[in-house]
UniProtKB/TrEMBL annotation:
Keywords: ATP-binding, Cytoplasm, Glycerol metabolism, Kinase, Nucleotide-binding, Transferase
Protein name: Glycerol kinase 5
Domain of life: Eukaryota
PANTHER family (alphabetical): GLYCEROL KINASE 5-RELATED, SUGAR KINASE
Record region (Disordered): 40-102, 121-168
Keyword Coiled coil on entry: no
Functional description taken from the UniProt entry: Skin-specific kinase that plays a key role in glycerol metabolism, catalyzing its phosphorylation to produce sn-glycerol 3-phosphate. Involved in skin-specific regulation of sterol regulatory element-binding protein (SREBP) processing and lipid biosynthesis.
UniProt-recorded Gene Ontology molecular function terms: ATP binding; glycerol kinase activity
Domain annotation Carbohydrate kinase FGGY N-terminal: ranges: 169-401
GO cellular component: mitochondrion
Principal location class: cytoplasm
InterPro entries in the cross-refs: ATPase_NBD, Carb_kinase_FGGY_CS, FGGY_C, FGGY_N, GK5
Family assignment from sequence similarity: Belongs to the FGGY kinase family.
Length: 641
């Protein structure tokens, strides 16, 4: 029987659904009151970047430009590659440079990059292969959003396009370094994964007490307020189109002046809200720069914003809008604070930053509590209206799922990237170099703040090693690493995605010898994860003025005992690993369950936690010092490539 239909006498609503829309998969779990999984479904996202994993290596032309030397002729674009992160994910050919993601050449009109100087656009040459011109995605472009048809009076939505493979969300890569998602395919997979999970549990949709949605952060879209038509595809948090703009801003005189002004203000007032602007640095992962790019390069979005007809939304906002057929336009505090455009001290969208980057303030959605009744999904979607009781950003959701409710609790997520989150309670720590403040969640009057440090290329590097056949299955890596005493001096420097501190950091193996084997290479990759954990942990200890308590790990890489044990040895702390590694889904379900009355309070949730393993320090830190010193030296030699 279809999951949306209900037999007479069916059981009342006594299950909650947690959905996690991540960078690599869309996962859904159905939980009972004991937080046991009753049914699950998972659909893979297949991210592949045109031009390679992050960006093409510097060409001879690029190197000549840096030295101010002439270089005749044209450089080649980088070769296509794949950057997805999932186990046993089959590889597929990537669309060639300049392709629209459907295997045909994009007929996009193009115009020069505009670099911001004192908040005003100005021409700036764009360096690097495939980045001389910017496609104007709003005019006559084919972005895979399909044609428009009406679904309800006064509101139209684009038609979904079929993915090239069932159960997969296809990413689009119109240019090297650009990463996009088709909103209609994502929507189709989101709805499909919920239906599959409920059906796998043998339940009816009417038995679902509430839906909680966890989403990747920083991925956004803009659309027309009246028609619902997107102006472009989702621009992923991994997208690098703003790299040159970021570099231009970070070197600008205006930013230096801002640093001086706010340093003086902080000195005179002692107010922590002036600390972050005093060393403000932009990065490609921030939404602000890519959003500025949209309004300078997509004419339709710019014109709609002038008439207050442009809507901005991260993934959660778009899904809410679609689930309610356009009747709910909102986000929550956790997702808003992760955009970099939201002022966590004042709990509002930042008008100063938006004016600086020429972003209209009218585009932003209202911000609601994290655990909150957002309304119900339209009955046409699932057969019955399902209450949407929580939306939350993925890392904050994992924090909640790990029951890190007290100040000093630490959550370590190792997935596509690596995220260290510290619960700072009611105290909001100002941004420090390498760390930044977030709103963890807001439930009624309670607002919990976090401090976060992150690293890219954790799971991505492991998946890349699998793609080049260093191993067949990720489960082999632990045994391979333990089969040798050390890496024989081989160091791996991850750098597939642009570093926040150095956009020209290159990925590399160093210290290779004729005796180097696959085992040494694999061990070097795993060691690099633990070494980077150590560096970030030391920054947290130094900057966060709260005693650190329990450290709880989750994410796919947390299943590797070699990495977990080495991290525990390096930081000299105990690390707990839960029985359920899908903490983002569980956290969304917990938040939805609290809002719906499915669970009573957080004390009840803590009793539902299940620990699978505990890693305690076994080796002295001095045993790792020679290897880590060598790795740090390798890191320095990979900078500014």
């Amino acid at each position: 029987m279809p999951c949306g239909q209900q037999e007479s006498g069916a059981a009342p609503a006594r299950y909650v659904v947690g959905v996690d829309v991540g960078s690599t998969v869309v996962k859904c779990h159905v939980y009972d009151r004991a937080a046991a999984v009753r049914g699950s479904s998972c659909r893979k996202v297949n991210p592949r970047r045109a031009g390679g994993q992050r960006r093409a290596a510097p060409s001879p032309r690029r190197r000549a430009e840096r030295r101010g030397l002439p270089f005749p002729g044209r450089e080649r674009r980088g070769s296509a590659g794949e950057g997805s992160l999932r186990r046993r994910l089959p590889r597929e050919p990537s669309p060639g440079a300049g392709a629209c993601g459907r295997g045909r050449t994009c007929p996009l009109s193009a115009e020069c990059w505009a670099a911001l100087t004192c908040g005003s656009p100005g021409p700036s040459p764009v360096r690097g292969p495939g980045r001389r011109r910017v496609a104007q995605a709003g005019r006559g472009s084919r972005l895979g959003v399909g044609s428009v048809h009406g679904r309800s009076p006064g509101l139209a939505f684009p038609r979904a396009q079929a993915s090239s493979e069932p159960g997969r969300v296809e990413s689009l890569y119109p240019r090297p370094g650009w990463v996009e998602l088709d909103p209609e395919v994502l929507w189709s997979q989101f709805v499909g994964v919920i239906k599959e999970a409920v059906q796998a549990a043998g339940l009816h949709m009417s038995q679902i007490a509430g839906l909680g949605i966890s989403t990747q952060r920083g991925t956004f879209i803009t659309w027309h307020k009246r028609t619902g038509k997107p102006f472009h595809n989702f621009i992923s948090w991994q997208d690098l189109r703003s790299a040159e703009l970021v570099n231009s801003w970070n070197k600008s005189l205006l930013l230096k002046v801002i640093h001086v002004i706010f340093t003086v203000l902080h000195f005179l007032t002692g107010n922590d809200r002036y600390v972050a602007p005093s060393f403000l640095t932009f990065s490609t992962q921030q939404t602000s720069m890519k959003l500025s790019w949209v309004f300078k390069n997509i004419h339709e979005a710019e014109e709609a914003a002038k008439k207050n007809n442009c809507c901005f939304g991260t993934v959660d906002t778009w899904l809410l809008y679609r689930l309610t057929k356009g009747s709910v336009y909102a986000t929550d505090y956790s997702n808003a604070s992760a955009t970099g455009v939201f002022e966590p001290f004042m709990k509002c969208w930042n008008p100063t930053l938006c004016n600086l980057l020429s972003i209209p303030m009218s585009i932003y959605p209202p911000v609601k509590d994290t655990s909150f009744n957002f309304g119900s999904a339209d009955s046409e979607i699932f057969g019955v209206p399902i209450p949407i009781m929580a939306v939350v950003a993925d890392q904050q959701s994992a924090m909640f799922g790990e029951c890190c409710f007290h100040p000093g609790d630490v959550k370590l997520t190792m997935g596509t990237g690596c995220f260290w989150n510290v619960n700072t309670g009611e105290h909001l720590f100002a941004s420090q170099r390498g760390l930044y403040p977030l709103i963890g969640w807001k439930i009624g009057e309670e607002v919990v703040y976090l401090t976060e440090g992150c690293m890219s290329d954790i799971g991505t590097a492991i998946k890349w090693a699998q793609d080049i056949n260093l191993f067949t299955n990720v489960d082999e890596t632990e045994e391979m690493a333990r089969s040798i005493v050390d890496s024989q001096g081989v160091c791996f420097v991850p750098g597939f995605q642009v570093s926040v501190n150095d956009p020209y950091l290159c990925a590399s193996f160093m210290g290779l010898k004729p005796s180097t084997t696959r085992n040494h290479l694999v061990r070097a990759i795993l060691e690099s994860v633990a070494f980077r954990n150590k560096l970030l942990y030391d920054i947290i200890v130094k900057k966060v003025r709260i005693p650190l308590q329990t450290i709880r790990a989750d994410g796919g890489v947390s299943n590797n005992s070699f990495v977990m044990q080495m991290t525990s040895d390096l930081i000299k702390k105990k690390i707990e690993k839960p029985a359920n590694a899908d903490m983002s889904s569980l956290g969304a379900a917990f938040l939805a369950g609290l809002a719906s009355g499915f669970w009573t309070d957080k004390e009840q949730l803590k009793k539902l936690r299940r620990i699978e393993a505990v890693f305690e320090p076994q080796k002295d830190l001095e045993e790792y010092k020679p290897a880590m010193d060598t790795w740090l030296q390798a890191m320095k030699r990979s900078l500014h490539w």
